[in-house]
């Protein structure tokens, strides 16, 4: 039971961290687009896509843990 509680708290923290990172990248991307920084925007978009993929992968793995 204690281990399950620890895992749930850790997963919640991980999800919050991913959402925070995604929101930061979205903000950075919008600033780059507004400033006509095309190459920076492309790189940020790639990083944002990777964060989404990582988040989806982690969500899928939690299904297997349950």
Can you walk me through this structure?
- This protein has 66 residues and is an all-alpha fold.
- It has helices spanning 2-34, 38-65.
- The two termini are 13 Å apart.
The quaternary structure here is: single chain
Roughly how much helix do the residues carry, as a percent range? over 70%
SS-based class: mainly alpha
Strand content: under 5%
Task: Choose one word for the global shape.
Answer: elongated
Main sheet record: none
Number of helices: 2
What is the string of SSEs from the N terminus onward?
HH
Roughly how many Å apart are the termini? 13 Å
Quick summary of this structure?
The protein is mainly α.
Which helices and strands appear, and what pairs or packs with what?
Blueprint: H1 2-34, H2 38-65
Descriptive key words:
2 helices, 66 residues
């Amino acid at each position: 039971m204690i281990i399950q509680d620890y895992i749930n708290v850790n997963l919640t923290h991980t999800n919050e961290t991913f959402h925070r990172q995604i929101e930061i990248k979205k903000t950075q991307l919008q600033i780059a687009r507004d400033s006509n920084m095309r190459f920076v925007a492309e790189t940020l978009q790639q990083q944002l896509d990777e964060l989404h993929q990582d988040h989806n992968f982690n969500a899928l793995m939690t299904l297997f843990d349950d």
